[in-house]
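Issue: copy button drops trailing tokens. Both records pasted manually instead:
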Amino acid sequence: MLGVSGRRSYSLQAFALGLVIGGVASATVLLIVGAVLQSVLPPAVRWGLVVVGLAVLVARHLGWVSFPMPENRRLVPETVFRLGRFVAPLQFGIEMGTGARTYVTSNLPYMLALMVALVADLGGGLLAGVGFGIGRALMTWGAGRMPHTSDWHAKWTQRSGLVGALLMMVFLGLSSVLGFIAV
């Protein structure tokens, strides 16, 4: 259904659009929660919570600590695929983009959620939601460019540790810059 060639490419586009819509919807919820938190907690406390939270998530990523993270461990039901070549991937994308029905295999979404809720303004939060959706879409497009799904999975398995570490370092670097700008 999510092929990248011929007349099926619009399914991939609908899926990507759904991912962005879902990311923005999640960011909006986090911004609403954040509006309450940001109104009662001073900036130094919020940034302190961000630093501690990010440190704990980095330690979890490195395997220094182990604890479960909240996630909805359900896959999207097959019935959604009966909705057609546009609506089905759109709905699937929205559900994946919100995390409503998906596994979360990385700490990065939790890091982003923490930042959006505690320190983001409206524009930054919405931009984070769009970026989250685009990031998920890029993985799908990357997988779709491989001749066989197993090829992509094998390459991802080989490189996921390195890619995850690099993405985490970029995220932490950008977070540090934002922190210095905000202070």
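Record 2 (pasted manually too):
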Amino acid sequence: MLEKGLFFRSFRSLTKTGIIHNLKGKNAQLARENRLKEDKIRELKFQLEEYKRLVHGTRSEGHVSAEIAEQLLLDLAAETSGGPAKQPEQEITYKRKKPSVKPNRQPLPDHLPRVEHIVEPDEDVNGLKCIGEEVSEVLAKQPSRLFVIRIIRKKYARADGSGVVIGRCQAVPFKRAWPMRAC
């Protein structure tokens, strides 16, 4: 607004030819700005069309079969009548490292005290052989301290080889529920 006021005040002190000259200069400046903006609009429209083609364009390349008549006239049957040539077989053996299983989380710190809960199977384990344990660690808290609960579920193999018996996991609403975790 201030610029407009100064512009018109300067007209009072100018002659008609001076005013016409100033207006022509201003008109030329506005025309240059207009051309620049139109060029920018054209460029942006082109980019938009390119992006639309990339996103919504066809994804498959059509295969146009262009058979050449001379190729069909070649006598290839005489050369391959002996059947396919057998290539010598080669036996390849190699050792591969087993991919490591990535843990879901970092182990709980060793400096926290541990409370162990041993869970035995519900059925009688007399005569069964203990073959291992399933250990789950859960971070627990009391108002003034943090500690780790180690849930140790014993695994037993049946003597007749019909399967494995393991202690039950504690019931939680869903896996990784606080404060206990599904085993």
